[in-house]
Amino acid sequence: MARLLDGIASLTEGVPRRALASLAALLAVFLAAPWIANDYVLTILILILYFAYTGQAWNIMMGFAGQLSLGHALYVGLGAYTTAALYVHFGVSPWLGLPVAIIVAATAGAFIGFLAFRFGVAGVYFAILTIAFAEFARIGFDHFRWVNGSAGFFLPVANYTQNDLWNLRGSPTMFYYVALGMAVGAFVLCHGLLRSRLGYFWQAIREDEMAARTLGIDTFRCKMIAVVISASMTSVAGVFFAFYYNNLFPEQVFHISRSIELILGPIIGGIGTLFGPIIGAILLTGLSEGIWEVMNAFGFNPPGARQVFYGICLLLVVMLLPDGIWPPLARKLGLGKRPEKPEP
Predict the structure, then answer these.
(1) For the chain, how many structural domains are there in total?
(2) Range of the domain at 92
(3) pLDDT for residue 292
């Protein structure tokens, strides 16, 4: 118990009490949501938590280490297909298949990272490389008969009333709390990583990689760790995706639009911040669903409306709030870090 309290104290050190109180209030709202929300609202909240989680995972690569990945759907797809195939063909629980999914995604991330970082592929070229591997996976799984290729891979669903957490079969409420646990875990992990020695190395690489290398930081090793952790976390989201939606199509899972959806939250909320992915997920998902419902009510449902909405949001943030929504909001609400006391 003493170690647990010490760990909590170290995690909250330097964080304003107002920020801790706001975080506790937000967590309390999310914990109570299933008791007051209907099924439709609960579905939206699940999407918010899902994108908050994936946003944190992507933020490790771009926000912390400064490595732009535009093909993160690759790791979602690998995690989803790995656990789904093990479950359908061999009856393996997703919790037992999860380590396999993490290993597969981490290996893919390490391979991409090694190719890029060892041969000096950086910046926009690294982003293109990540897109290329996601497209390779999409084309490959289109012809992978073991998972039905382009015809789609479907998971059996017995019912939605009885909760079977071991096999991730059950009601939306069960999936909601699983998503909430993932989002909270990702937040705590990213907070710890950001305040660790490795996190400071990442930030140094993000700001000036040449200067970081001059200071003796092993930039190759640090960037490889960032890629592997980010890929592993994203594969967990793929497991959730597979067992929540119960169907997988390569065109749907690996498409670049899926990657763009994953990264918009942290970009709009604030890259490199802990609350940015959460704020971005809440605003993007909540507003897009609200606008979608209004358009449906008036019988106006043009194709690509969501993509247009995302583009407008991104354009407004880039023009008006280049650092994202969270940094200026945190300053205005007094939720930033405590100023350090001057030494006597």
Answers:
(1) 1
(2) 36-255
(3) 76
Give the H or E element holding residue 83. Answer: helix 73-90
Long-range pairs for 31-37: beta carbons < 8 A, 24 or more residues apart? 31/180, 33/176, 34/173, 34/176, 34/177
- Residue 266 maps to a domain: no
Residue 3: the pLDDT is: 54
Nearest to 43 by CA among 267, 244, 263: 244
Does residue 62 lie in a domain region? yes
Give a yes or no: residue 332 inside a domain. no
CA distance 194 to 293: 38
Contact in structure between 138 and 254 (CB atoms under 8 Å): yes
**Could you tell me where the DSSP H helices lie in 13-158?**
17-36, 39-59, 73-90, 94-118, 124-142
pLDDT at 296 over 80: no
Which amino acid is present at 226?
A: A
- Based on C-alpha coordinates, what's the Rg of the chain? 20
How far apart CA 255 and CA 259 sit, in angstroms, is 7
pLDDT digits (tens, 9 = 90+) for 139-196: 999 999 999 999 999 998 866 678 899 999 989 999 999 999 999 999 999 999 999 9
Q: What is the pTM of this model?
A: 0.92
- Residue 81, token pair as written in the block: 């297909």
Query: Residue 248 is inside which H or E element, if any?
Result: strand 247-248
Token pair, residue 53, equals 């989680």
- The rounded percent of the chain whose pLDDT value lies above 70 is 91
**328 in any annotated domain:** no
- What does the alpha-carbon distance between residue 52 and residue 111 come to, in Å, rounded to a whole number? 26
The distance of Cα 28 from the centroid of its chain, to the nearest Å, equals: 21
